[in-house]
Please model this.
Amino acid sequence: MSAWMQGGRKQKKKQEYPEQQVILQMTAVYDGSRSWLEYAYVLGFLLVGLPYTISLAGQWMCGWPDKPGYKKYIEALNPRRTYRLTRATLEFLKFLPHWRLYIHYTFWYKNEKNHKHFEKGITFGRRGNKLDLYHPPNVGKSDNELAPLVVFIYGGAWGIGERSIYCLLGRQMAEELKAVVICPDYSIHPKGDVLAMAQDIADCLVWAQENGQNFNFDKDNIVLIGHSAGAHLCALTTLFLADGREELFIKSSKQHEIMLSIRGIVGLSGVYNIVDHYKHEQTRGIEYVSPMHRAMNGVENFPYYSPTHVLKKLSRNKLSKVPQFSLLHGTNDITVPVESSIKFSELLTSLSVKVSLHLLPGIDHIDTITDLMASNRHLYQPIYSWIKQEFRILLTSQSDFQLLE
Model:
């Protein structure tokens, strides 16, 4: 009886309050719709709002597409460009784990106790740039032995960087190679174009010729080491000197003297063909925000400032002046594809210029430079072992041009 009565009460309740049931159902539907709407808003922001915010902010800070009038904004809003540029921007997040290294070199460089290891802020060249000079430990101090000289040129897409960032590298490299290491600043864009940068590096080499005895290094035993854009500038400056370029504004006799002193070039993850690299920048959507095309003074000058193109135009006599190259590249490099070093190595070989190529499987662009700054880094020993091996070979080798002299 009680069960029958309870069932009757439930049925009676449903009959008595139909409006309330309808309201509850509508409320549930509304709440569900609102949840889906919120999800749609979040998804829309992540897929559209965030990429466009990142892309437009990057282009506003670094440069709009090189198009006339309003067309540059139309190009800036191109969906394909937007998503490619956003992806390239987010790739910078991988630099965050290096924050400890940033703090380390910042405090090391400013600490006056460390100034016993290096000479800071030496002025050189026509533009009054500065260089830092790092002493090797216990070399040339007791028996007047002259240490070989390494000129390290940092990278940074021809528009970023300064010598203080590489103080730990300079210190470690001087110790590992038992060499004097100098790291010069140069006229990065927009302060200068790539020709000004090559002139600054040539000025640094002129300074080295004039100051070997003052700082206890052998001015006739010089190896250039560069990373990324720095590797490009090492190669380009050397080839300009071999070609006797008047635009360096250095006397031909002095250029001849410098070429005799350069034993080799070590290129780490370098750019050697600007035309090819611009195509790679286009695939990443960064060709307009990158300083490269502006530093080269436009697309039409890409061949002129490409070491690959310069090499192809050198006569047999001038090719004999070109010193040996040692190239290293990571196979997982997204910033500068490994094909850059592979193709350059193949070209050098075809022109009978001595070259060695070493590929690091699974290694990215930044690793080949940051891991040279501290001995506890993962690639410190493997890369320095290779550099030391190549360094010894370069110091004992001579080009046909040097043998003739």
About this structure: Residues 92 and 366 are 10 Å apart (CA to CA).
